[in-house]
Amino acid sequence: MSLGGQLSRTSLMRGMVSFLREKAWLIIAFLVGVVIYNLPVPEGLSREGQIIIMMVIVAVILFVTEPVPLPTVALLIIGGQVVLLNKDANVVASSLMSDSVLFIMGSLMLAVGIIKQKLDKRLAYLIVRITGTGLFQISVGITVVCGLLSSVIGGHTVAAMMLPVALTLISLTKEHTKNIKGLAAVLLLSIAYGCAIGSIGTPSGGARNAIMIGYWRDFFFDPTDPATRKYIVDYLDWMKYAYPIFLAQLPFVTWILFITFKPEHKTLRRAVAKLRKQIEKQGPIKGSDWAAIVIFLLTLTGWVTLSDRLGLGIVAILGSALFLMVGLVRWNDMNSGVNWGVVLIYAATISLGVEMTQSGAAEWLAVSFLHLLGPLHMDQGVPLWAAYIALTTLVANTMSAGAAVAVLGPVTLHTAELVGESPLKLGYITAISTSFAYFTAAAQPAFAIVFASGYLRTRDFLKVGWRMAIMSVVILLLAAEFYWPYLEG
Amino acid sequence: MPDIDIELEVEAEVEKRFSILVCIDGSEESYSGLRYAVRMGSDNSANLTLLYVRPVDQGLSSGGLQMRVARENMLKWGVELPGTKALKKGRDMLVEMGFMADDWKEQVVHTDITGDPLGDNTTVYMNDEGASISLKLLVSPSVDRGILDECEIGGYDITIISMTETAEAKEHAGYISPSTTYMVATQHRGTVLVARELEEDHGHFMCVDFSEKAIQAAVKDARIAARCHCPVHLYSVASSEDELEKARDVVAKAKAAIEAEGLSIAGESVEIGDPVESIVGKGRKFSLIVLADTSVKGLRRFFTTSVAYEVLQKAANSVMIVR
Amino acid sequence: MRVGTVMGMKFSPRAMGLFLHDRRWLIAALIVGTILYFVQPPEGLSREGQLVLIISLVAVILFVTEPVPLPSVALMIIIAQITLLGLDSSKVARSLMSDSVLFIMGSLMLAVAIVKQKLDKRIAYLIVRATGTGIYPICVGISFVCGVLASIIGEHTVAAMMLPVAVTLVTLTSNNPKEVKGLAAVLLFSISYGCAIGGIGTPSGGARNAIMISYWKDFFFDPTNPETRRFLVDYVTWIKYAYPIFLLQLPLVTLILFAVFKPERKTLRRAVAKLRKQIEEQGPMKGRDWAAVGIFLATLVGWVTMSESIGLGTIALMGAVFFLIVGLVPWNDMNSGVNWGVVLLYAATISLGVEMQASGAAEWVATSFLDLLGPLNMDHGMPLLAAYTGLTTLVTNTMSAGAAVAVLGPIALRTAELTNENPLHLGFITAISSSFAYFTAAAHPAFTIVYASGYLKATDFFKVGWRMAIMSAAVLLLAAKFYWPLLGL
Hints:
The complex is a heterotrimer. In chain A, about 75% of the residues lie in helices and about 0% in strands. Chain A is built from 24 helices and no strands. Chain A has helices at about 10-20, 25-40, 45-65, 70-85, 90-95, 100-115, 120-130, 135-155, 155-175, 180-200, 205-220, 235-260, 270-280, 285-305, 305-310, 310-325, 330-335, 340-360, 360-375, 380-400, 400-420, 425-435, 445-450, 460-489. Mean pLDDT of chain A is about 80; it is low at about 1-5. Chain B is of the alpha/beta class. Chain B folds into two domains: about 1-195, 3-Layer(aba) Sandwich (Rossmann fold); about 205-320, HUPs (Rossmann fold). Helix content of chain B is about 40%, strand content about 20%. Chain B is built from twelve helices and twelve strands. A twelve-stranded mixed sheet of chain B has the order 3-4-5-2-1-6-7-12-11-8-9-10, with helices on both faces. Chain C is globular and about 70 Å long. The N and C termini of chain C lie far apart (about 75 Å). In chain C, about 55% of the residues are buried. Chains in contact: A-B, A-C, B-C. Chains A and C meet through helix 1, helix 4, helix 5, helix 6 and helix 14 of A and helix 1, helix 4, helix 5, helix 6 and helix 15 of C.
């Protein structure tokens, strides 16, 4: 028998055709890439910048259409940076890792630890006891809890903490019915959006807020001029401006989620009943439960108090290391429980964002965007704000919120001065609209974390994202137009 | 929400089915424990779980490739893993003894998050009445940990574990060493039957001491014994003449409690002497020496060896510790 | 009924005692660390160097005794670098990732992908067709094929892939394992030693090789000095040095195996015939088989030709990407088949190794080691090489080969500089002898995988291991003495 036997031509053809149909988007993405790669370099943009923009576009197409497993895209980004940009492999490799990647990794591991200890069930039950068993009430409850917490300790933390709660409810529902796609989406995205809209509330909600405060101070504060004291924004000032915006968005989030996903079940009575039974069976909180709670609270305190010195990621890693060392969770559970692909995706996206800033591609995008606006008479007042929101939202979807503020902040504040707008207003607008990165799974850590659960597809983010984005933008503009002048007056 | 309450009640009833965990390591002794379990669940009214625990493979020592990949590859070739072989032998025995028929529905479960990805494989066989036989292959850092885990999570009514030191038994990867058995017997909070040259048909030798727990344990044992139609012999030891009356009293109390349940005993006796020696000596001709775990949690459990554990060490035949 | 906790732990003193007993080595390691922390640094060692050495020592104790899951040791190393050495968290995060870590990750993904293709049957067919039915030729054939494959894709891949072939041959010969003990041992050890001696053949054969190459480059290569270009070891150069050593060991392996375990049968005619039949049911190679072979060959070609310019790691990742894109392996298999903890572990140890070199700790250890060897007249030439072979063999038997090279590498290279030996020679000695982890079943990846089949006894490993180790060390030293000087590097 010959091992290399002849393949019949027809079956080969059929196989090829079905393969190509499956991978249509992959081919389209690559074609788009090749076209952009061969375009002449636009003025003001380096060749490097062009390649980066090409990679971003290809990556976004692949992220949204999913013709290949998503981690593949992350690997392609890494490979692309080495091969297309001719960068040293070691440099690219080290640009993958940063404190925030460690954070994502650490918090996913923590989540596994918490699930193993079944603490998620107790927390879920606590929430459910307050909200009742209706799905709408539960998701409102989750959003509120997430929003309130994340405005203080940052969205990613809260997402990591609440993910197991949603997973519990979903898996309990899954036991008696197969149709849970909509329900899972609503519950998980309640967390994601709760965190996203909450994290703008106070300066400690996210790095971007702190970065913007720093910019104001650096650019406008002049110790000799008392009039510039208003550019030193403190915790309370920020809350006055931003918190109402978060509160105003709250009621809309659940509503939009319900419209978009039309959950299959309106009540979780069965799941909650099972939950109650399981918790009763678990009995009172025991030694190892306490140990897990203590470790988790320590981690949480660490996040709030130590993160500026040690970094969020290290604290997260310390927490998960403690879980492992005390023996509350086995490594094999973590290995299979953590979605390492998400870590890879996030790492690659961040590295791409860094590259975008370094190559000047981000700035080029911002500047050419403003050029476009000139003829449309959008270069002042509400239209200008709207334009900035759109720009920031766009950029923030391709890189981390902190990086987006870091890149766009100077451009925005510069523009404000040029056109005579209040730098505070435009600054707030930029910082707040970075949280409107709703479109891809990797746009925000909170999104990446809920995406890791495996119940969501990248398309879901897009499907609900645009609705949410419109809602958020409208609220932000309304606040800027009608509410903020009050504060200044 | 009445519908749910009913549903939950039904679920609870299913869970009330008597459940037995048999720890298998491939040795002859562990299969004799299985035979005894079959007697206990003779009318198919008990849920039977066969457990094989394999010590965990450190991912590092396999260079970062999870052993699971290698194992799956072996399965694809139709080569059986060490643990499966032992479990399948157990299943074949069940079929042979007529406990399990061929028409039981088979269901393979592989749990990922609650279990270990390397080998937490469970095959469940169910008959129409809802009785089930599960073959469980578990991976754990050590055999004792794995067994204790399963005991705690599964909430079994009785756990059967063997105690053997033959060279044949030692060759199995999941070998249950005497220290493992001892660990399970002392650490587990449920009833444990330590099978050691377990012979059927010689009845239970139920030893009661003066505690309240002993009476409860006697009742519990009587219920278990009734399942396999084994006669129960009540026994108590007094350390001196003065206590003799007290001992008689206890036996009578236990007898009354058992009879109140509608069960009966085959005999009763009282003796004066050293508790451990007398129990070990007298109990030799029975299938099982049954003791209540009357030791107090905490410090005493850590430092002193209670009568139950001393008997466990010194007895030549099987011991059951009722909790 | 009380339902307890997952690990069966309660907070009773007994449980507490057990808990502490399980972790006695952790406690011991931490105490040793704390004591050393307060000791004055010895002369010639900076405070920083001392701290790095403490971290390494504690880590090594934990590696060897394994009181806690090993990935948590990796996490602890990262945390210690930040808290003890006061480094910036993002900087440490970046130092975690390098091309060699990407290589480890990529090659593990490749390993999963390759094992999942059913190529093992084809390979088995080729072996039995070429060797006939005599047990001696079959064993040589298995070792040879395993070695050649392992030199390219790593020993764990090949061991996992080929294990069923040997087990099938054994079971087809006799159903009673007791009858064919010697036969099983010879066949299974042929696989594991084939993999063990083959893994050194090329840079892509194992993490240790990639780590050594990156150390040479980091420590000695200076772009301004063309003299130092020889420290950029490429794929072909490595093969020139190492491959002959693998080939020399090959016949000796089978000889030793036959001397130690006397197989019960001299020919496997019936088993081979049955195996052939079983394999032939597979039919001819199909499209996806060819695709898998194609991707594998493309990766190999990439390694040989491009590893210098874009790095071993990038190519490995691209290989994995192709497997994913073509759909030969789903992402889930990779997520759960790769032990990500090992990736973390290597990342942490390499970062520690680099820190060891930078802080001067490596230099201090090298000097002290030389001071020890000096009186024995072993501090130069062949005796020195022999001493390092011995040291590495010892260390690698207690922990993983990659970690051994990551820690010992900087010391060995420093020693070479101090004694005017060729750093390339000492580096090769360290990397190659790190594969002599023959003494226990857990010391070598290929051994662990083969041991899992249940056909070998734990004591068998040492019985044959010490003979093999002497043979391998002798071959290595002979090559270093007579062959390497001929290469003139």
